[in-house]
Fold this sequence. Notes:
Elements: E1 35-36, H1 39-58, H2 81-103, E2 108-123, E3 126-139, E4 149-162, E5 168-175, H3 227-237, H4 255-265, H5 290-293, H6 295-304, E6 309-310, E7 322-326, E8 335-342, E9 348-352, E10 356-361, H7 362-368, E11 373-378
Antiparallel strand pairs: 1-2, 2-3, 3-4, 4-5, 4-10, 6-11, 7-8, 7-11, 8-9, 9-10
Amino acid sequence: MIPKRFRPAAIAALTVALVSGSMLAYSASAGSGPAAADRATTDTFARMADDVLSQRTQALVEDQAGKQGSGQGATKTRMSAQLKKDEDAGLQSLRTRKARLAELGEAYTGADTRVVVDRATVTGGKATVQVTEQTTLTYKKLRGDEPETTDIGTRYELTLTSKRGGGWELVSIKSQDSGPVAVNEPVPAKVNTVKDDGKQYPDGTPASTKYPAAPKPKAKTGGAYDYTAMAKYAEKHWKNYNPAYRKFNGAGGDCTNFISQALKAGGWQNVPGSTSDYRNWWYDGTRQSDSWVGTNEWAWFTLSNQRAANLANVYQTDVGDIVQVDFNKDGSKDHSMMVTYRSSAGMPYLTYHSTNTYRKSLASIIASYPDATYFAYRT
Length: 379
């Protein structure tokens, strides 16, 4: 994901105990510079993050009667008034997303959210905490051949303040990943808009998102490309990155670098040449073409070299095919994903980096971003 016109691009033994009201000590005196929080304080931050993120996840899960209930208990995490308002609105948006998914024949019967604190520092009664959330949602077997689960890994930064009388108050929780929101993450109210430079490129044709669509199956093996190998690669490295390749998790994200790796694993061959010419596509260990890592450059390369063609409907994608999204409809594609599983009922499931995600249904992406522009590529 490169959102600009250049576009190269458990808690161990953590219980689900909730936060006590006591103020825990940290290894810095008031007024000193940033210092690592002590173990007890770090555990408190972990429980707070686990509480809030688990509440989000449970908003997507059916209640025990199998109804599309709220799935929500009351959080015990102390929040600022603004954050409480934002979280309440976010939970409502997740319940709406659950209803959209139900209309498309998708539901979740269970969930497991775990949080690891990567770093926590305290300065003068204010804390900054980086955490990684790992969530597994279990698909309800409505059609019978859904995957067992969808899995996500998301990084967040939390800010907190200590309160008079003891305890911590959560002030903000912000995703640090550049891809589409996780299935249990509310969509931000505003998305940055990047102006198109007006130049003519082989941008391709947007795909319909109407479900269901007339199927367009393809042979997974035996042809020029091995689509099963592509899917196996993506599902092996969605969370455990391949050390043979560099990561691009900073500005822009790793999504197109990841699909390029998977396509190469399935037989795509290099096209050598300058890094900036989108008609070239290659990676040599120290450098790569812009089309290897750039969301739009990849599309331009793919269409101009006839490596793939646009499909009329995004639900026609099959294993090894690529879905790209322009979230804010500004003419610049923002994200790339690979189909690694397709149900017999015609539902593609996507695996991708930034946010690291395994077998997320296409319906879930569209339920989160119903107004985005989608592109589908038959590789």
